[in-house]
Design goal:
This protein is mainly α. The chain has helices spanning 9-13, 46-61, 72-83, 91-96, 100-128, 133-180, 193-209, 220-239, 259-265, 280-288, 291-300, 306-335, 343-346, 353-384, 392-412, 416-443, 451-482, and strands spanning 33-34, 37-38. A two-stranded antiparallel sheet has the order 1-2. The protein is globular, with a radius of gyration of 26 Å. 39% of the residues are buried. Keywords: Membrane, Transmembrane, Transmembrane helix.
Length: 490
């Protein structure tokens, strides 16, 4: 924001001009003060003084410097855990509808673009001193910026909660049937996924969400990450255990009537275009969103610097790239065209203790992770409404209403690909592409030395806008054409 001659005198008196800048602190700079305003002689050295004043005011409004205590290795673990989520379950489905070559190209591209967006976010944080995304948005764009950041981060977290509860809806019935010794085709009201997800929400998740603070729930993130690593190991192992056309696995396909059809189905494809291809990029984008957690992790980093945090993000994104690629490729090479948008749901737990174990581990992990995300959404909502003082009635009412809305969405949304698609083309696109580039361009709009960087940021912003303009209509078109497909039809 440019320096204004109408700066209040009281605000100026609270400012401390750093002595190491090449700017004179001579009192002659302030030749006249009338009615609490500064005369224009102060602006004689326009560019350098504007930059100094802007920088100081921005840092004054944002967070005070507090030394971090978290090591680089632990920061890598925390950021990796922030990246990892239910998106990993949809990547094999994305690969099955793009082909190995096209999927690899998209995965590499989104990984590199995500790293670049983190770089822009760190630059913005350094320039303003803000360590909270909402504060950064408010500092640069005012209240509209705060609202946009709040909306994007909340939608992303709600999307993650929906995908987690969708896992409960899909996987818990199979686990219960196995423990009861029933066949997969067994149906009763108490093994209905819709009833079970409501029971879990209000029997387990609601009491945890009603707690005044997170407490020990923050430590469940490590368990969640270890469950996903366990899931990857099982996916790789099962690739060599499950034949491509094992009876019962691919029976939904009408083309399995002869051996040539079998060979056709069990042959990997490298480039594919169909009506579901549009979900590939949003699903990958959804899987890589961690931006709301970047600045808090940065603020806790010991001896923090932009370069050190960039190293943390590079290592974390590379590790998640490897996990995502291996999960997608081995999941696809196990089921080929019959892979579903929830990869875990495709594995049969009948007489398979390993599959049952990983299914239960993932269910427990996501159940314990939902309250963590819920706390973030609710606290942001209270912060936005400026209702930060704890009130028990409001706390209970908001928690109950939000959980009811989330459960209704889980019950009526037909597939996980719809969650990945909607969140991927909206909040994930905003958090990865549009917001970091917009913030950077606004902050550096008067810095001529960063002309080249601004060109790249502008292209990055244009890419995000183009992604929205292309993907959103295609996702809507697929909804209209499919008319609400079921999971089994994926």
């Amino acid at each position: 924001m440019p320096f204004k001659a109408g700066l209040e005198l009281t605000e100026l008196q609270n400012m401390t001009i750093p002595e190491d800048d090449n700017i004179s602190n001579d009192s002659n700079d302030f030749t006249e003060v009338e009615n609490g305003q500064i005369n224009s002689k102060f602006i004689s050295d326009r560019e350098s003084r504007r930059s100094l004043t802007n920088s100081h005011l921005e840092k004054k409004k944002c967070d005070e410097y507090i030394p971090g205590t978290t090591s680089l290795g632990m920061s890598v673990f925390n950021l990796s855990n922030a990246i990892m989520g239910s998106g990993i379950l949809g990547l094999a489905f994305a690969l099955a509808n793009t082909g190995i070559f096209l999927f690899s190209l998209l995965l590499v591209s989104v990984t590199l673009l995500s790293i670049y967006s983190i770089h822009l976010l760190l630059v913005c944080s350094k320039e303003t001193g803000c360590m909270v995304y909402e504060k950064l948005g408010e500092q640069v764009f005012g209240t509209p910026g705060k609202m946009i950041v709040f909306g994007s981060t909340s939608l992303q977290n709600v999307g993650a909660m929906l995908s987690y509860l969708f896992i409960v809806k899909n996987e818990l019935p199979s686990a219960i049937k196995f423990l009861m010794g029933k066949e997969e085709s067994f149906s009763a009201w108490y093994v209905d996924g819709r009833i079970l997800v409501v029971a879990v929400t209000f029997g387990i998740i609601l009491p945890l969400c009603l707690l005044k603070n997170l407490g020990y729930l923050g430590y469940t993130s490590g368990f969640s990450l270890s469950c996903m690593v366990f899931f990857l190991i099982v996916v790789i192992y099962k690739k060599f255990q499950i034949p491509c056309f094992e009876p019962g696995l691919n029976t939904t396909s009408p083309i399995l009537s002869n051996s040539s059809a079998h060979e056709h189905m069990c042959k990997p494809k490298y480039v594919i275009f169909n009506s579901k291809t549009v979900y590939a990029l949003p699903t990958i984008a959804f899987a890589f969103v961690c931006h709301p957690s970047v600045l808090p992790i940065y603020s806790e980093l010991k001896d923090r610097s932009q370069k050190k945090m960039q190293l943390v993000s590079n290592i974390s994104f590379f590790a998640m790239f490897v996990m995502y690629f291996m999960t997608a490729i081995f999941g696809y090479l196990t089921f080929y065209e019959n892979v579903q948008s929830d990869l875990l749901h495709k594995y049969q737990s009948k007489d398979d203790i390993l599959i049952l174990t990983v299914r239960l581990a993932v269910i427990v992990a996501v159940i314990l992770t939902v309250p963590v995300l819920f706390f973030t959404v609710r606290s942001s909502l209270f912060e936005l409404a400026r209702k930060t003082k704890f009130d028990l009635c409001r706390h209970v009412l908001v928690t109950f209403v939000l959980l009811v809305i989330i459960n209704l969405l889980v019950i009526f949304i037909p597939t996980m690909k719809d969650i990945f698609g909607v969140v991927g083309v909206t909040s994930a696109n905003m958090l990865i592409f549009i917001l970091p580039s917009s913030l950077y361009l606004k902050i550096t709009h008067q810095d001529g030395a960063k002309f080249t960087q601004r060109i790249w940021a502008s292209l990055f912003l244009a890419l995000g806008i183009m992604f929205s303009l292309v993907s959103i209509p295609l996702v809507i078109y697929d909804w209209v054409q499919s008319g609400g497909s079921t999971e089994g039809s994926d």
